[in-house]
Amino acid sequence: MEKIFDDTYFMKKALQEAEIAFEKGEIPVGAVIVIDNKVIARAHNLTETLNDVTAHAEMQAITAAANYLGGKYLKKCTLYVTLEPCQMCAGALYWSQISNIVYGARDEARGCINLQTKLHPKTEMRGGIMEAEAAQLMKRFFIEKRNLN
Q1: Please, which residues bridge with residue 83 across strands?
Q2: CA-to-CA distance for 140 and 137, rounded, in angstroms?
Q3: pLDDT digit string, tens, across residues 87-112
Q4: Cβ contact 16:23 at 8 Å
Q5: Measured between alpha carbons, how far is residue 134 from residues 117, 140, 148 in Å?
Q6: Would you please indicate which residues are annotated as catalytic (active-site) residues?
Q7: pTM for the predicted model, two decimal places
Q8: How far apart are CA 102 and CA 110, in angstroms?
Q9: How many Å apart are CA 142 and CA 87, to the nearest integer?
């Protein structure tokens, strides 16, 4: 029997959020946080909308999930995000003690892996889930951005 609630299923939800960001003129990064196969937070980049450099999709999702759970720790939760978290977001995810991070595309320049940002010792991270779709959305965004300027 096919497993309906897998990494691809939830990454598609994160990609939907990234599309919303794209439509708003935001860098198209989307995120969802899941516990027990239930989405408890949905978010996308809002840095331009809020004029706030910290309004990354992950940061918005962490806040929404913490509010939903009634506490600051996201143990037993999984973050699905279309782009590898940056150093700032990885730091916030460290403090949230999130159990799992699943990302789509790598961010070679600003991602937490190349910058060697530490995650919580109990956090597991894996990537490459729907990587091509996530990377294509980013490429399309920046091509359109360049053509407008």
Answers
A1: 105
A2: 5
A3: 999 999 999 999 999 999 999 999 99
A4: no
A5: 22, 10, 22
A6: 58
A7: 0.95
A8: 17
A9: 21
